Amino acid sequence: MSSKCRCTARAARATLGCSLVSLGLIHLALSALVGWGPAEFHDPLYGEKLDQLRSHLARAPKGTPLVLVLGSSRALTGLNARRLEQRLAETRRRPVVVYNFAVPGGGPVTELLLLRRLLDAGIRPDTLILETSPTFFAEVAVPDNLTWLESHGIGLGERNWLESYGPLADPRSVTTTSGVLVPWYRHRFALVRWVARGFMPSIPWGVLSSWFDEHGWEPIGGDRRSDQMYAQFVAAERGALGPYFQNSRLAPASRRVFQDLLTLLDSQQIRTVLALFPEGSDLRRWCPAEFRARVMAALGSVGREREVTIVDGHDWLSDDDFFDPIHLIASGADRFTDRLAGLTAFSDIRAPLAFRRR
User: pLDDT class for 178, splitting at 50, 70, 90?
Assistant: First the structure.
């Protein structure tokens, strides 16, 4: 082999080696970024909502109170934050920022996770409207919530304390949140959002949805579907929610998450409204009266001890306001929002709150 060929071969091997080392370093950097970086790097939906909220706060006059909503898709579709902001501003005759930070598949653990993230990001609400529900206290609530969190995007640091509430999937798997084997694929949407936002796909529902408005509300437009279609929704939801009502005992894991959440709120001196969102008549029938009574007794005790408000709106609306037994259509969300804004608890959002059933 000529000296020229040998030089070419050495150069090729050197180039290949440098390429492999570079790819390895990029892989390690991405693993560190999505595993230990800020939550917006590994949770695109959270990142989008955080950007929106920061924009609202930047535009608002200094000292403007912030009202945040945390919860599941029931709160995401059921509370029109823009409308509530307008109603509160009219009542109080001063600006207020209201933002709906609820996410699909939320639950008690998700609410705690989001609150911790927001506080770490320097976002401290003056008042927090926190969705609660009898389903949040069922035996399967926390395990199901932990499973659902894997689809949102949780960092390696967050896993350490989340695992104290129950098992999470193996972070070494490509299908889990951390995705340490191929992080560039598992977190491709978060990375695209970070470097080329305009190429983010438009997804109508779920953890990557971008259909919520600038106040975080994701409305379901139109009227209630036909009776036949609504009956199909009822059958599907009944099958999904059946396991939640098999035991009338309040789950210890759920109570622990709930207490941890309220303790954090107390430590931050955040005024809290625990809201039971409207339920369709079918969902109200599925929930055993004994179970609902135990939940309300527990919430009432918490309301008196911690000076929070409990708003029980589970039977405020008719079935005509629902898309399915759980989610409100937009007009129903407006009706619920107006009634919520009319409560005396919101006449001055800095005043002490008292227990209130309706």
Answer: very low
- Spell out the domain ranges in the chain: 1-36, 39-346
Residue 66 main-chain phi, psi, to 5 deg: -115, 125
> Which residue, chain included where needed, has tokens 């259509």?
329
Percent helix, strand, coil in the chain, to 5, is 55, 10, 35
> Residue range 7-28: average pLDDT?
69
Query: 70 forms bridges with which residues in the sheet?
Result: 130
Q: How far apart are CA 187 and CA 136, in angstroms?
A: 29
Amino acid at 9: A
Q: In 3D, which of 80, 13, 15 has the Cα closest to residue 220?
A: 80
How far apart CA 296 and CA 110 sit, in angstroms, is 21
Q: Contact, 167 vs 159, CB < 8 A? A: no
Interacting residues of 308 by C-beta distance below 8 A, sequence separation 6+: 262, 271, 272, 273, 274, 302, 353
Query: Cβ contacts of residue 260 below 8 Å, gap of 6+?
Result: 112
Evaluate whether the domain defined by 39-346 bears CATH number 1.10.3720.10.
no
Sheet arrangement for strand 127-132: 97-100, 66-70, 127-132, 271-276, 309-312
Q: How far apart are CA 190 and CA 40, in angstroms?
A: 7
CA distance 96 to 63: 9
Tokens of 179: 């995705």
Cβ distance 64 to 95 under 8 Å? yes
Confidence of residue 358 (pLDDT cuts 50, 70, 90): very low
